[in-house]
Specification:
Strand order of the largest sheet: 3-2-1-4-5
Largest sheet: 5 strands, parallel
Distance between the termini: 26 Å
Length: 145
C-alpha cells in the first residue's frame, strides 16, 4: 500500500489549478498528509515567447514574488494551514524545473496538478508543464482537468 505523507499542489492561480488545490486538500486530509502549495513566478527568459526583449529592473522581480506569496497565502485559511500542516512556497524560474526541484527537496509522495487542456498548435508550441512532470516525476502525479 502506498503511503502518502506529503502532497504537493503547484498553482498558477488559474481555474484548473484551483480545482487541483481543492482535490489536494481533500487527499491530504484523507491521508493525514501535509499539504505543500507551490507557485512559480516564471522567468521571462525561459518562456517560449517572452515577447519583446525587455529586462525588468530587479525591484519588479521582487514585487512579483511578494505578490505571488500574498496571493498564495490567501488560498488557505488559518484553520486549513494548521489542520493540513500546510507549507506555502514561491519560486522563480522555469516552472518545470522549480516543481521537480521542490519534489526532490521536500520528499513529496504525491503531486496533484491542474492541466490547461491545450491541444494542437498551442500544446506543440508551449509544451505542457503537467506533461513533463508526469513523465519525469519520482512520485505519482494526479492531474485534474
Amino acid at each position: 500500500m502506498m503511503t502518502v505523507s506529503h502532497v504537493l499542489v503547484p498553482v498558477d492561480f488559474s481555474e484548473q489549478s484551483m480545482k487541483a488545490l481543492d482535490c489536494a486538500k481533500t487527499l491530504a486530509e484523507k491521508f493525514a498528509a501535509s499539504l505543500h502549495v507551490l507557485t512559480v513566478v516564471p522567468d521571462p527568459f525561459v518562456l517560449p515567447d517572452p515577447g519583446p526583449l525587455f529586462v525588468p529592473p530587479p525591484e519588479k522581480y521582487k514585487e512579483g514574488l511578494r505578490q505571488a506569496e500574498s496571493h498564495l497565502r490567501r488560498l488557505l485559511t488559518h484553520a486549513e494551514r494548521e489542520k493540513l500542516h500546510a507549507a506555502v512556497a514561491v519560486a522563480f524560474g522555469d516552472p518545470y524545473r522549480e516543481i521537480t526541484e521542490y519534489v526532490r527537496r521536500g520528499s513529496i509522495d504525491l503531486i496533484v496538478m491542474g492541466t490547461h487542456g491545450r491541444g494542437g498548435v498551442a500544446h506543440a508550441l508551449m509544451g505542457s508543464v503537467a506533461e513533463k512532470i508526469v513523465r519525469s516525476a519520482p512520485c505519482p502525479v494526479l492531474t485534474v482537468r
